[in-house]
Amino acid sequence: MAVVRERRHLKFNLRLSLPEPSDCCPRFPFPLPQSTTSSAASATISAADLEKLQVLGHGNGGTVYKVRHKHTSAIYALKVVHGDSDPAFRRQMLREVSILRRTDSPYVIKCHGVSDIPGGDIAICMEYMDMGTLEALLKNGVVFNENLLAKICHQVLSGLEYLHAHKIIHRDLKPSNILVNHKMEVKISDFGVSKIMQRTLDPCNSYVGTCAYMSPERFDPDTYGANYDGYAGDIWSLGLILLELYMGHFPYLDPGQRPDWATLMCAICFGEPPSLPEGTSENFRSFIECCLQKDSSKRWSATKLLSHPFVSNIHPKSV
């Protein structure tokens, strides 16, 4: 991405200093990189030391910036939620902060700090992923062959295994919520509609997220949700993501088709499973079938899928 020529300081009325290192997602102040000298590390820094490089995205009452620490050159992504944004969106952001505070996985985006800014804004300083999202790569013409998909899938599954082991369901897994860097390291992000599971989860309260990637039981819990536990919905979403990347378009629709909610519901609940092109390996076909079982109780868990031949030969060091 091109960096804007004119770089302006972030106009935040707050000061930053070092937090306790044990806090995985502290309130601002947020931690400096390990390369920081001891004298700089002990000093209190101001928000003027964060230099705005460019806007990475807008939407839902917030803006995400690419920022650089002037003294260390460390690059971060800074998500700012505006004080006058929709209260529902602000609640989502607070939920995301709550989830990020609980997570510490190389496959989940890292939160470096959170701040309440005078005027009602909320700022979340996060790990910066320089290749953007899987959605952006797909739109830019990247070809996702099976080998690349297996490496991506192994990382997303590892992230889901971690989240599910900590009773967190994402509920909005899609290509735009999976971030990538130039090493093709993949991390799950955007936990605004995620949920920490309690003893039970009412399936009728599951109409959150992006409907295109919802599993059948979330549309029709009476038919498909007898054994609804939430985790299986994330696995369905993963299967659709892999198919979309492989086929180059959303698998239940024709290329370029923009349907309404009812069309998507009918396609997902009543349509035939998407057919894969000729030449697709049996391992990939089998993996997708394990993800896209309409009966959620028949879907494989993230842990079980990590043993599937499609991804079992992928090791973290080779990703």
UniProtKB/TrEMBL annotation:
Entry similarity comment: Belongs to the protein kinase superfamily. STE Ser/Thr protein kinase family. MAP kinase kinase subfamily.
PANTHER family for the chain: DUAL SPECIFICITY MITOGEN-ACTIVATED PROTEIN KINASE KINASE 5, DUAL SPECIFICITY MITOGEN-ACTIVATED PROTEIN KINASE KINASE 5-RELATED
Any Pfam family hit: Pkinase
Reaction catalysis annotation: L-tyrosyl-[protein] + ATP = O-phospho-L-tyrosyl-[protein] + ADP + H(+); L-seryl-[protein] + ATP = O-phospho-L-seryl-[protein] + ADP + H(+); L-threonyl-[protein] + ATP = O-phospho-L-threonyl-[protein] + ADP + H(+)
Keywords (A to Z) from UniProt: ATP-binding, Kinase, Nucleotide-binding, Phosphoprotein, Serine/threonine-protein kinase, Transferase
UniProt keyword annotation of Phosphoprotein present: yes
The species this protein was found in: Handroanthus impetiginosus
EC number(s) from the headed UniProt entry: 2.7.12.2
Keyword Transferase included in the entry's annotation: yes
SUPFAM superfamilies the UniProt entry points to: Protein kinase-like (PK-like) (SSF56112)
Top-level taxonomic group: Eukaryota
Biological processes per GO annotation: pollen-pistil interaction; response to other organism; response to stress
Top EC class, one word: transferase
GO molecular-function terms, A-Z: ATP binding; MAP kinase kinase activity; protein serine kinase activity; protein serine/threonine kinase activity; protein tyrosine kinase activity
Signal peptide: none
Domain annotation Protein kinase: ranges: 50-311
The protein, known as: mitogen-activated protein kinase kinase
Lineage summary: Eukaryota, Viridiplantae, Streptophyta, Embryophyta, Tracheophyta
Binding site for ATP: K79
